Each structure stands twice: as structure tokens, then as C-alpha cells.
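User: Run a structure prediction on this.
Assistant: Running it now.
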Amino acid sequence: MDMDVSAITGDAPVLDIRALERVQRIGGLQLVQRMIRAFLEHVPARVDALLASASALDAARAAHAIKSSAGNLGLERLRLIVREIEARAELGDETWSELRMYVAGEIDAARPVLEVHLERSE
């Protein structure tokens, strides 16, 4: 089954810069930098866990971990996709597994945007 992920993401941006601006107002630029670095360092393992998930429970847990990080950084498209994976997995809807293939692509789209933001802030 070929799924249209745009039905989930709509016209959401890869990065909603307002999220990073909120974090910066609350915790300063160093917090934003630490969050970006932590995301870039830890998200590959979280994505691997999601891709390797054999059960809906494992998928929901892995998706939730990615969703939290993505939301904090304003990675809206990624957040929407993993939110949908988490919701479908929790409902026992096996189509969660079809959405997994989109996660790595969203990470690939987000990485250079985050890296540029990090470089500009240093």
C-alpha cells in the first residue's frame, strides 16, 4: 500500500523556527544549541528502534520518544508523522508500519536545517 504522507503533514514546514525561539526565550541560546546537538546525536538510535519495531507497543514507544524531541525543536513534519505512528500503533492499526519509511526522510530533511541553525548561533 502506497501511503500519501502529505495527508498527515499538510503544508507543515520541516522546521517551525518559532519553537526554537520559544526555547531560546525560556532557556537561552545555549539550551537551544544543546537540544539540537542532543537530537542530532541521539535520533539515529531512536529511528533505528522505530524501524526495528516488531510490535505496536515498541513502535509506539519509539515514536513517542522521537515525537517529544521533534516537538521541542519545531520539527513539525517529523512530529506529525511520528505522532500518527504512535496513535495508530496504540490503536492496533497495523498501518503504523507503513509510515516508518517516511521518518528517515524527515530526519534527512531536518538535519541540514538544524546544522545551519547551530552554525549560525555559534
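The mean pLDDT is 93.
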